[in-house]
Amino acid sequence: MKTIYRIAKTELNTMFYSPVAWVVLVIFSIQSSWKFFDTLERFEKGQKMGQNMDNMTQVIFSGFSGLFTEMQNYLYLYVPLLTMGLISREINSGSIKLLLSSPIQIKDIVLGKFLAIAGYCLLFMAILGLIGVSAYFCIDNLDISFVLSGLLGLYLLVCTYAAIGLFMSCLTSYQVVAAISTLVVLAGLNFVGKLWQDIDYVKDLTYFLSISGRANEMIEGLIVSKDVLYFILVSTLFIGLSIFKLQTGRDAQTVSKRVLKYSGLIVAIFSLGYITSRAPLTFYADMTRTNDRTLTKASQEIVKKIDGPIKITTYVNLLDINYYMGMPYSQNQDFASFDKYSRFLPQIEMDYVYYYDTSTNTALYEQNPGLNDKQLAEKLLETQDIKLKKLYSPAEINKIINLKPEQNRVVRTVEYNGKKTYLRMYDDMFKIPFEKEISASLKRLVTTPVKIVFATGNMERSIEKNGDKNYKIGFNEITFRNSLINQGFDVASVDINAQNIPQQTDILIVADPKTQLSQGAIDRISQYIDQGKNVMLLAEPETNTALTPITAKLGLGFTKQTLVQESETNAPDYLVTEFEKTIDTTVIKLHKSQYTIPLLGSSGIITAKDAGFKVTPLLKTNSQPVWESPAGISSISQDLKKQPSTKAVPLVVALTRNINGKSQKIIVAGDADFMGNAELGRQQSGTFQFFTDVFTWFSNYEFPIDTTRPKSTDNKIMVSSNQVFITKITFIAIFPLLIIAAGAFILIRRNRR
Fold first, then answer.
1. Fewer C-beta neighbours within 10 Å, C or N terminus of the chain?
2. Is residue 496 scored above 70 in pLDDT?
3. CB of 190 within 8 A of CB of 210?
4. pLDDT score, position 363
5. Which residues touch 137 (CB under 8 Å, ≥6 apart)?
6. Is-contact 653 617, C-beta < 8 A?
């Protein structure tokens, strides 16, 4: 060990007697400081303008353009300049012969030189650490452990680069060739992860070899054992190769012995890497303050209930627009999207089934007129050179699973303990399911899903149709991730005039019947309510009399006409609502959004008698006067203003009572439009949050899964623009000048000696 230390010390002295080491430090210092303070300056100006600051540590240091992310992209440029002369300088000068003929072991020489370059790389981390110290005084409640995680990731990365550069330096006496060769190898390791991803076993090997993005998890605050071991193993591989290469200059070895040594080392490293990257042998340390890189408490409670094999099967229709997400070349990335879960459920098994069938991908058919589905699938396989073990025809896949209700889209099934549920892809920019959707699908397998049943038969709102007033988006749209069908609920319809309400119904919704309910329907709904089950009644001013037999049973009534309100910007029937200020949170919990919840054309709700329910108003009109008026007026006339007006009229109320040993929950609303497709898609409206809160309440807070995390506390820049400017000048100008002065002093002193 002493020999290794002495060699490392000598090598470090040699490095600092060269201007290259000092120039690299200066450039790295200026580049990193400029990036950090430029970002800090931008956010300080934004804070002055009133922009909300949130998660400042992560935003400034990681993310798409954070400091650590940016510096990771440039580290590979610095290392070849430092490593190109480690061994090639000795070869070129001839001193390598003296080293090899000395009693010093070759491994000591190689390890000493690697230790030297690893020590030099610590200076990079020291510079970034100084920036981190500056950030501690600039950002309120800086997440220090997050910064340390990023520093560890970058250090392991640059040391791995150094090990590769060391080996390339062993291969040539020309330092420039060694530097270029290092860049080529680093480029290859970045690119190799994309090679042969459609070949089983080989794809796992090339994916493991890829160095691209290996430090990302640590930069984002999650230390993963397989990434740490990757850096250690790859560094060990190239250090070992360096030792073997130099040994060929000292020892006479047969070709077969050399091949055996090299291949043995490579196989051993690859085998260890593959084994340690498997889910059961992977360990995690979440370094973020709020455990952002770990499943939330609600999700962890779900996975704790799973004890046994769980299978996720992805059905990939080659003609669907999202087909590429399930192709063999995407499978390793697909596995990675479940890393948070495989951490707790290493027994997850993933399978892929490929087929072709008619899809909703209209562009594909327009671009290939005259081709049928089979011809389109064959064309895709040929043009992209995709080889599949099995491609099912429509008839064959239909024998396995009926995917017609899923529109033949790319979809997953999750199976556990004999139960199966869907996990879908969505038509947004992210496509893949997030924690909320994955946890909802898992919870459906360990609990009984909440079943919503819509009453039909009286021209009610439809959950199958688009259009502003229908209910497909909120309840039954498989392509919308926040639709309740994707958040753990089962949704169905029943004609209550002719059929009984299913026994397993948890929430019955009667949404704006346009015709009078039959006596059979009234009896069925009444019996359902008497059983203590949950109901939602939604009316419109013109047709609310259809619900009178039911609301009278609940002790409620509706105003006779539409409520209108005077406004300079909105139509009279556009009601600006407010939450009731005295809502009992033990009855219902609502998230009060910064945006208002408008109701367009609503009846007011009147409490006619005590029917044994606790009535809790949820939404009401604001403090401005409202009048009753026929629908369709364009302005508030003077005659109408002379009529009696009211304020704070209840528009949506919750009814609760204890019956049959459980709490019964009922919602009555004077407006059925607020759950329609148009209103749930309205921008800058609190309607969707209110909608979600209501069904969370109905499900006893079981669904949708609550994946909210504690609010970050690093949400404020603590320094002024002048202070940022002064610190920026210190780091970008004064500090580099000090490095230059120190380098000049040492180099001049060296030359004089």
1. C
2. yes
3. yes
4. 92
5. 718, 719
6. yes
pLDDT tens profile 168-207: 988 888 888 888 888 888 888 887 766 665 666 666 677 7
Length of the chain: 753
E strands, 662-722, are 662-669
Q: Token digits for 146?
A: 């997050």
- Asked if residue 35 lies in contact with residue 63, where contact means CB atoms within 8 angstroms, the answer is no
Closest by CA to 60, choosing from 50, 51, 70, 52, is: 70
Is residue 11 packed enough to be buried (19+ CB in 10 Å), middle (13-18) or exposed (0-12)?
Answer: buried
- Report the interhelical angle of 2-16 vs 106-138 (nearest 10°): 60
pLDDT at 3 over 90: no
Beta-strand relationship, 650-659 and 662-669: antiparallel
The pLDDT mean for the chain works out to: 89
Q: Which tokens in the block code for residue 169?
A: 């330096």
pLDDT over 70 at 343, yes or no: yes
**Gap between the terminal Cα atoms of the chain:** 30
Q: Tokens representing 131?
A: 């920036």
DSSP state of 349: E
- What pTM does this model have? 0.89
**How far is residue 445's CA from residue 439's CA, in Å, rounded to a whole number?**
10
Could you give the angle at which helices 75-83 and 19-48 cross, rounded to 10 degrees? 170
- Residue 297 has, within 13 A of its CA and on its CB side, a CA count of 4
686-742: pLDDT as tens digits: 999 999 999 999 999 999 999 998 888 989 899 888 998 999 899 999 999 998 888
- SS3 of residue 38 by DSSP: helix
| DSSP state, residue 686 | S
CA distance 542 to 631: 8
> β-strand 411-416 against 419-424: which pairing, if any?
antiparallel
> Per-residue pLDDT tens for 291-301?
999 999 999 99
Assess contact for 560 and 494: CB atoms under 8 A.
Answer: no
CA distance 425 to 305: 25
Two tokens, residue 587: 């009855």
Give 324's DSSP letter: G
Please state the three-class secondary structure of 247-262 as a single string: HHHHCCCCHHHHHHHH
Q: Which two tokens stand for residue 704?
A: 């949708």
- 102 contacts 688 by C-beta, under 8 angstroms: no
Q: How distant, in Å, are the alpha carbons of 77, 124, 147, 235, 601 from that of 120? A: 15, 8, 20, 16, 72
Looking at residue 501, what is its pLDDT?
A: 94
- Residue 423's pLDDT is 96
Which residues are within 8 A (CB) of 559 and not within 5 positions of it... i.e. 6 or more apart?
A: 541, 603, 604, 605, 606, 628, 649, 670
pLDDT tier at 10 (50, 70, 90 boundaries)? confident
Query: Which residue from 748, 618, 600, 751 is spatially nearest to 694, judged by alpha carbons?
Result: 618
User: With bands split at pLDDT 50, 70 and 90, how would you rate the model's confidence at 7?
Assistant: confident
